[in-house]
Write a structure and sequence with these properties.
The chain is mostly helical. It has helices spanning 2-8, 26-34, 47-82, 89-109, 113-125, 135-138, 146-153, 155-168, 179-184, 205-219, 231-240, 248-259, 262-269, and strands at residues 18-21, 39-42. The protein is 57% helix and 3% strand. It has a two-stranded parallel ribbon with strand order 1-2.
């Protein structure tokens, strides 16, 4: 039959089907719906009712396809970001935690869904530029030289370049809102950050948020060149840097999430052998 033939075509399973028939017996309606049709309408019906039904089903079908496309797109981005793992094992787990931390803060701020999605893309791809960083720098156990730090810091610009290239070929421009997050997440509230030395509210708000959780996760994770700090000490460092490295407002939001237990819950769920360390260490340039 026509229904089954269409369903077998490429993309046919996503095609909305509305049956319009004079056969309104209960068993007929049941037989039609059991096939998987989207709607089963019996006569008599006005043209207005029919048009309304068709438009509703088409709109719903488009919404579902759009959501499926977004899910596939997001999965592709996660896999792309996951490519960093082959070069820097720390980064992959870092991405997962960062996404959860930043989402908790954004929800606390009451940001709308579109903004949450842009932040999620930014969190997933914020270190994508590390794919262009020499592996010897990423894995070096000794302190980086001035030249190596200069190269490491360019990962924000490399990442923004990658996003621009992807966005040029994306008619929906999904990644455009995430680009400033990738480029500016290492800027500092007092202007001492990179790549442009932006200060205060010159820094995009999403990048200011990500800077807090990025630093927290960096401090609570082992790196090739140093051991992690414990969560409690890292939390104190975040508070101490409010107004200097971090936006004071974002630090307040982070503190609230911490006091609610949301940060610890994420750490427990995505544990990466984080332990309290009592050793004093130099915190300068930890990320």
């Amino acid at each position: 039959m026509l229904y089954e033939a269409v369903r077998e075509l490429p993309g046919g399973k996503e095609t909305p089907f509305v049956f319009l028939t004079a056969r309104g017996a209960r068993e007929d309606v049941f037989a039609g719906k059991s096939l998987g049709v989207d709607d089963y309408i019996t006569k008599p019906i006005s043209s207005h009712e029919l048009l309304t039904t068709v438009r509703t089903r088409l709109r719903r079908s488009n919404e579902l396809m759009f959501e499926q496309m977004k899910s596939a797109y997001k999965l592709t981005l996660v896999m792309l970001a996951g490519g960093i793992e082959a070069r820097d094992q720390y980064t992959y787990k870092h991405i997962m935690r960062l996404n959860e931390y930043s989402s908790a803060m954004a929800q606390e701020l009451g940001w709308p869904e579109t903004r949450l999605e842009a932040l999620e893309f930014g969190a997933i791809l914020h270190d994508i530029g590390k794919l262009d960083i020499n592996r010897s720098i990423l894995e070096k156990k000794e302190p980086l030289t001035a030249e190596e730090w200069k190269e490491m810091r360019r990962h924000t610009e490399y990442g923004a370049f990658v996003l621009k290239k992807i966005d040029q070929h994306d008619p929906l421009h999904y990644l455009a809102p995430a680009l400033p997050i990738v480029l500016y997440h290492h800027e500092a509230w007092d202007g001492s950050g990179y790549p442009e030395g932006l200060k205060g509210e010159e820094i995009p708000e999403e990048a200011r948020l990500l800077a807090v959780v990025d630093s927290f996760d960096a401090m609570t994770s082992d790196r090739p060149y140093r051991l992690s700090l414990g969560p409690s000490r890292a939390f104190e460092e975040i508070k101490n840097r409010a107004g200097a490295q971090f936006d004071p407002k974002m630090v307040e939001v982070f503190i609230h999430c911490w006091e609610q237990g949301r940060i610890k819950k994420i750490m427990d769920e995505l544990k990466d052998d984080v332990e309290e360390k009592d050793d004093l260490m130099d915190l300068k340039g930890m990320h």
